[in-house]
Write a structure and sequence with these properties.
Radius of gyration of chain B: 13 Å
Helix content of chain B: under 10%
Number of strands of chain A: 12
Strand content of chain A: over 45%
Shape of chain A: globular
Order of helices and strands of chain B: EEEEEEEEEEE
Largest sheet of chain A: 6 strands, mixed
Shape of chain B: globular
Largest interface: A-B, 24 and 27 residues
Oligomer: heterodimer
Distance between the termini of chain B: 36 Å
Number of helices of chain B: 0
Helix content of chain A: under 10%
Number of helices of chain A: 0
Radius of gyration of chain A: 14 Å
Order of helices and strands of chain A: EEEEEEEEEEEE
Number of strands of chain B: 11
Distance between the termini of chain A: 41 Å
Structural class of chain A: mainly beta
Chain lengths: 115, 113
């Protein structure tokens, strides 16, 4: 069975600090997809990134970066120079490669960025 | 372009009542999903659909039924609501090719008394 673990329930940082959100996954599939979604206080879910299990290159998008390590089954998310607007719950998710994309979510990490 | 629209946004029911949540998407997406979000548990898949007229069970389907009579709509029904179904319900949709990401609606907050 697939499983996603986000061990950090809540993280508090001060603006401009860097912060890393951890995501560890379990799957028996050799091909799979990993995702990160953001849920701001307003409640909607915002897609951030999708990564294929074949692609272990790190990715950077502005202040966001993702580190995918197949050897440790981890897909960590780093926010550089955090801002108050980054305050949200962040979810890591995993799907098989059957095409149905039935997402298995972690329990989420609440990030609080204070001024 | 509205994206994924969920109706209603809030609802309070009494135990035993029935209701239907509506999800509508205007992106011509083949796949649609219903999730529930509970505190400390993330989102869990209830049912999903890979096209008009087809539905399948997800991780937590018990107590729910779904229908996809039109491609743009995916309905989630509670026949006899129970307090354990108090949750925030999210609908999502996506294209059926290329493992494109799911686009989520804004959620429906449902309370069962």
């Amino acid at each position: 069975a697939q499983k996603v673990t986000q061990a950090q329930t809540e993280i508090s940082v001060v603006e401009k600090e860097d912060v890393t959100l951890d995501c560890v996954y379990e799957t028996r599939d050799t091909t799979y997809y990993l995702f990160w979604y953001k849920q701001p206080p307003s409640g909607e879910l915002v897609f951030l990134i999708r990564r294929n299990s074949f692609d272990e290159q790190n990715e950077i998008s502005g202040r966001y970066s993702w580190n995918f390590q197949k050897s440790t089954s981890s897909f960590n998310f780093t926010i550089t120079a955090s801002q108050v607007v980054d305050s949200a719950v962040y979810f890591c998710a995993l799907s098989e490669n059957t095409g149905f994309q039935k997402l298995v979510f972690g329990t989420g990490t609440r990030l609080l960025v204070s001024p | 372009n509205a994206g994924v629209t969920q109706t209603p946004k809030f609802r309070v029911l009494k135990t035993g009542q029935s209701m239907t949540l509506l999800c509508a998407q205007d992106m011509n997406h083949e796949y649609m999903y219903w999730y529930r979000q509970d505190p400390g548990m993330g989102l869990r898949l209830i049912h999903y659909s890979v096209g008009e007229g087809t539905t399948a069970k997800g991780e937590v389907p018990d107590g729910y039924n779904v229908s996809r009579l039109k491609k743009q709509n995916f309905l989630l029904g509670l026949e006899s609501a129970a307090p354990s179904q108090t949750s925030v319900y999210f609908c999502a949709s996506r294209l059926g090719v290329g493992n494109q990401p799911q686009h989520f609606g804004d959620g429906t907050r449902l309370s069962i008394l």
